[in-house]
Fold this protein.
Amino acid sequence: MRLLESGLLTTVQDLGRFGYQKHGVTPSGAMDPVALRLANSLVGNDRRAAGLEMTLRGPAIEFRHDALIAICGADLSPEIADMPLPTWCAILVQRGSVLEFGDARWGCRAYLAISGGIAVPEIMGSRATYRHARIGGVEGRALQAGDDLPVGRADERVLDVMRDAASNLGPFPFVLSIHRFALGDVMELYERDCRVRVMRGPHFDTFDERDRDAFLNEAFEVSSRSDRMGYRLTGPILDSSERDELVSSAVLTGTVQVPGGGEPIVLMADRQTTGGYPMIGQVAAADLPVLAQLKPGDQISFEEITIERAQSALRAQWDRVQALKEGVGVHAASRP
Amino acid sequence: MSFEGVRLSFLGETAFVLTVGSDVGFDAHEKVKAVSYLLESAPPNAMVEYVPAFTTVTVIYDPMAATHEEFADRLQRLLENAPEARPAVEARLVEIPVCYGEAFGPDLDFVASHNTITPDEVIAIHADSEYLVYMIGFAPGFPYMGGMSERIAVPRRDSPRQRVPVGSVGIAGKQTGIYSIETPGGWQLIGRTPLRLFRPDEDEPSLLRTGDHVRFHGIDHKQYDELFKGEARA
C-alpha cells in the first residue's frame, strides 16, 4: 500500500508491546483494541497482525495489489472513487484503487486491516509505533505521503476467497463487500453514553469528599491538549489531595492521575510507564474502546464500579467479540 | 527476607500493587529487589509482567486467565512460601563515561555558581559518588538514581528546553539523571555520555536496571567521539 496523503495522524499499530514496562517501554498499540481485533478477523488475519490507526482525518491510500480490507472503529467516511464504503465490513478492492476519507461522522479513531497484515519489522516483539522513543511502525513515526507499506502474504484460504470473488468484479474500480458485522451489534460495544466505568484508584481517599463526589458525578470535557499519551480533562478542579506529588510508581493505560493544578489526566496507550501524581481512578479495561473514540470537545463522566463488575464486563465483552468473529465467513477460512 | 509487611492492593482489574514500605531508601529497595526476584524466578500463572519502583512492585496480569481473587491468592502464596534467603546476586557496577562541560554541559557554570563552587568541583563531586538505580521509568531506559551529593543540588530550569539531546547528564533538585531519549526537559545539563541507555534492538532494551550501582567518570571529546562511534546505533 502507498500513502498518497498522511491524514491527521496515521500510525502502524498492533495490540501492543508487552513485557518491557520495567525497562520504561510503554505498550503503545491500538487505542481501540476491540476495533482492530474485529477488523483483523474480518480479513482473516491473526489477532497479532498490524494495521493502521487513523485519527479524525483519514489518509489517502493506493492499493498496489488486489486486497481484502476492513475499516472498523470510527466512521471517517471512507470511499473509493466517490463510492462510500461500509465500515465493519470485509471488502475486496482492486489493485490501483485509492481509498480516501471525508468527514468524521462518529468517533475519533478508525482501524484499517489488510489481509496479510502490515509487515514492518517487529521491535521488541511488536509492530506498534511509539513515537516518543521513535520505535516501531515505520521508523517510529507518523506515516507521511510517499510511504510504501509492505503487506504480508494473506492466508491461503483468504486468497481463495479473493480469487473467487475477483471473477465477479466489474469494471475498475469495483469494490465488493464480502461479509460484515451488523452495525447494531458492534455499536453495542460503544453504548456508554459517555459514562466511562471506573474503579477507585490507590489515592482516591486522599481527596476530600467534594472532589471525590465531583469526580464520580460531574461531567468533564476532553480538552484539545489530549493525545495518545493521555487525555487532559477540563471541568471540576480536583485539587484537595494531601500531596501534590508522591513517590513514583507504575501506572497503566486508563489510570486517572491528578497533577497539582487539579485537572485530571486519563493516561492512554503512549503514556509513561511510571508516574508520581495521585491516582484517583482506574478506567475499566472494557471501556478503553469508548475512551479511544472520544475527541476534543466531547463530554465524559465517570461511573464507579467494583473490580468484580469490571472483570465481568471485560469477560462479557470478550465473549461478545468471540461471538461476532465466529459469525463471520472468513473466520472459517482462517487459522484457529 | 520476610514479606510480612508487604501490602497487596489492586490497580484496576489488570494489576496488583505490592507495597513494601512507605519511604524511599535502602530497606524498601532491598525488598523491591527481593519481590522482583521472586516474580522473575517463579512467575505466577496469568502474570504478564511486573514493574519495580521505589517502594512498590506492580504486577500486571491477564484478567481473562485469572480472576482478581485467584491472582491475589497466587501472589499471597508466592510471598508466604518464599525461601528465607535468595541466592546472593552481585549488584552490577556500571561505569558511565561523561564528557563534562562546554557544548555538552551548558548549565555546568550555573550549577557551580548556584552552589558557590567551581565547575571543576561540580564535576569532581558528581563523579566521586556511587549512585543506586532505584527504578527505570519516565522514558525507555531512564534511570531514577539516588545518592547524589546535596552540594551540587540545583533547581530545575525555569523554562525547559524543547529538545534535550540523548545521553545528556543533568541535575534537577537533589537528583541526577541521564536522558535516554530525546525529549523536552528542564534539568540542568552538565555533560553527555556516548553510551546508549536505550537500545531497542537488544534483548534487554535498557542498559541499566533496578539495583545497579553507577559511577560516572570524565572523558574528553576525542574519547567521546570514539566511544560514540563504537556504540552500535540503528
Summary: The first helix of chain B runs from residue 26 to 41. Chain B has five helices and 13 strands.
